[in-house]
Design goal:
With 218 residues, the protein is an alpha/beta fold. The chain is built from nine helices and eight strands.
Length: 218
């Protein structure tokens, strides 16, 4: 299957993408991973992207599109892929359609993870990260440490990242609503959107997603 995963920040896209890609035996292609891989390998596209990032500018659509195209042409993506973070706007969605059409392919589904805005703010603004190891993540509501402000794993100090503050989260949501959300209507016009609730345990959301995708494939 060829799937695009969409949803607001805090919807759990990265977590769900990893589970779904494994269950469907297709590669998980995330924009973040594409940038990191191209920059670390010092590809021409990576150097170009870094030149914009170093200046604090957004990487132009054509660079992101070229990276995605290169990745989707790899052998492991021959039988499908799951795109996470791309396309991020309508012009990228149009470019993706053109790219697939030129190869005689098309998307099978656009999976929309739906989360109420209040829950998004609660999820992200409640995160606390260990200063010693950023892999140790806690939450003021969902995964409380045994001792407030102290990492259960190593005893390090827990803190809230600047980009997890409520004000920053609301700004990120504004960007999502203006830039990315319009692609949902774009794909709805093609009859590709499957919307599921992203509330509940990770495995419950994955189960819902797999059932919805199975119905689409039937």
């Amino acid at each position: 299957m060829r799937i695009v995963l969409v949803g607001p920040p805090g919807a759990g896209k990265g977590t769900q993408a990893a589970f779904l890609a494994k269950n469907l035996s297709i590669p998980h292609i995330s924009t973040g991973d594409l940038f990191r891989a191209n920059i670390s390998r010092q590809t021409e596209l990576g150097k170009l992207a870094k030149s914009y990032m170093d200046k604090g500018e957004l990487v132009p659509d054509e660079v992101t599109i070229a990276m995605a195209k290169d990745r989707m042409e790899q052998p492991d993506a021959e039988n499908g892929f799951l795109l996470d973070g791309f396309p991020r706007n309508v012009s990228q969605a149009e470019a993706l359609d053109e790219m697939l059409q030129s190869e005689g392919m098309k998307l099978d589904a656009v999976l929309d993870l739906e989360v109420p805005e209040g829950e998004v703010v609660k999820r992200i603004a409640g995160r606390r990260i260990c200063r010693n190891d950023s892999a140790h993540v806690f939450h003021v509501t969902y995964k409380q440490p045994k001792k407030e402000g102290v990492c259960d794993v190593c005893g390090g100090e827990l803190y809230q990242r600047d980009d997890d503050s409520e004000e920053t989260v609301r700004k990120r949501l504004e960007v999502y609503h203006t830039q990315t959300e319009p692609i949902i209507d774009y794909y709805k016009a093609q009859g590709l959107v499957v919307t599921i609730s992203a509330l509940g345990k990770v495995e419950e959301v994955t189960g819902r997603a797999m059932e919805a995708l199975a119905r689409e494939a039937a």
